Amino acid sequence: MSKRFILTFVLMMIFLMIYQFFFYKPPQRPVGTARKEKETKTADTSLTASVEKVVEENPVVVVSPLYEVRISRKGALLTGYRLKKYRDALGKPVELIPAGYGLLDVISDGLHWKDLDFTSPIDTLQVEGEAELTLTAVSGEDTLRKTFRFTENSYLIDLSLAPGDTFNILFPSGLNTTEKDRKDDLKHFYFIYFKDKTRKVSLNSLKKKPFTESGYSVLWAGTRTKYFMITIIPDDGNLRRLDAKATDSRISFGVKSTGHRYHLYFGPIDYFILKDIGFGLASAFDFGAPIISIFSKLILYAFKFLYSFIPNYGWVIVVFAFLMKLVFWPFTMKNLQTMKKMQELNPKMDALRKTFKDDPQRLQQEMMELYRKHKVNPFSGCLIMIFQLPIFWGLYKILRTTIDLRGAPFILWIRDLSSKDPYYVLPILMGIASMAQALMQPAQDQQSRMFALFMPLVLTFIFLNFPAGIVLYWLTYSLLGLVEQYLLKRK
């Protein structure tokens, strides 16, 4: 019965892992967001209205060590935003704004600023320390102004608008897809905003029904992809209204505010960068479910610390696996001792099965008494797996979402630890190492031996499409287990 229980438990864990990683999708639309049809129509015609392709003749170019921004003279729209430190699949700087579109359109007193011709005192601005750029346009008796303030080593940009009492600020094109695996990138497309906590609405949810949130206490809003995010943060700490909708692969959104000063963040979803900026932006980093997030955050800090000494995340993962083997050493020793004792108890167990073959309840009682008498816990192997699963899930989350591991190479053919092994070498080696490790463990009977052969095959199949980093971790952990068991056997 204990063997059947262990087998059932392990298979359940595998099923939960597969379901969690590939099928489970948390609720996307925040609870309590009620909208009337009239409000939805308003969202479609104002804050998320589509715009035509923008005119980008002779744009103003802003260059900093982190990015290069293009600002059109028609409407003073952001028509290009390239991140210098991050590359796309073609090796070019990542472009956040879809080609031919512009962000940061403003509607004030019913006037679309995108229809106006703005003038700039310069054509190119090189950001050294701090720099300011003001674009102006004349409308009737008013002189409209968009003032940008840039800081040399920050992704945060200050924005001032004048004049006006209320501003609708539009981001009609949303973010560009930036990853080679476009399908996977689109899974991480969300409209995201902060109101007592970070809330998000998925691309698929917005395709079905536009989103509107009215009220106060919204500190910032934006949209995100797998690795990048754009947000607008009002200086007064309140957005009056949010609208968002999606078509195809784009999330357009808009905000309404009475403030004149804002902060813009166009950059990577890097936990440490966002944490330093503040405004609660760090909560946009997805550490996973609450029970997993504790381990994810610890792993992220551990990786960052190890990387300061070992400038290769592949070797960081190898060292991390070694450290985890040390952490679980007492549990492994206890498990091996238990397995050895259970092997010694096999003759007595067989005798009990023969004696009480017609009385299953009595057989179970006698078996448990035998375990108690010899101080054996038949479930110790399951306990080790239970302890390891949160770390495994946390590691999976970090490898899938941390931008530092995006495109991070290891050695030879492993050029991206966040993607699967293109030749499936690591999963196959991991399966072989896991099988060898299982076969070296003391086996109580033929059933346990077959189970030991079966599980590595299942794990290999599951790990085929996992990020190379997680497979490298499990391969290293299994190889260290082989060395560990060999030394223990010799001892």
UniProtKB/TrEMBL annotation:
Lineage, uppermost ranks: Bacteria, Bacteria division WOR-3
Matching Gene3D superfamilies: 2.70.98.90
Keywords assigned by UniProt, alphabetized: Cell membrane, Chaperone, Membrane, Protein transport, Transmembrane, Transmembrane helix, Transport
Pfam families, sorted: 60KD_IMP, YidC_periplas
Domain Membrane insertase YidC/Oxa/ALB C-terminal per the UniProt entry, residue ranges: 313-490
Free-text function comment from the UniProt entry: Required for the insertion and/or proper folding and/or complex formation of integral membrane proteins into the membrane. Involved in integration of membrane proteins that insert both dependently and independently of the Sec translocase complex, as well as at least some lipoproteins. Aids folding of multispanning membrane proteins.
Keyword Ribonucleoprotein: no
Molecular function as annotated in GO: membrane insertase activity
Keyword Metal-binding found: no
InterPro entries with a match to the protein in the record: Membr_insert_YidC, Membr_insert_YidC_N, YidC/ALB3/OXA1/COX18, YidC/Oxa/ALB_C, YidC_ALB_C, YidC_periplasmic_sf
Annotated source species: candidate division WOR-3 bacterium
GO process terms (BP): protein insertion into membrane; protein transport
Protein location: Cell inner membrane; Cell membrane
Domain Membrane insertase YidC N-terminal positions: 60-299
Subunit comment: Interacts with the Sec translocase complex via SecD. Specifically interacts with transmembrane segments of nascent integral membrane proteins during membrane integration.
Membrane topology field: Multi-pass membrane protein
Family according to the record: Belongs to the OXA1/ALB3/YidC family. Type 1 subfamily.
The name this protein goes by in its record: Membrane protein insertase YidC
Membrane-spanning ranges: 6-24, 284-307, 313-332, 376-396, 422-439, 451-475
GO-annotated cellular components: plasma membrane
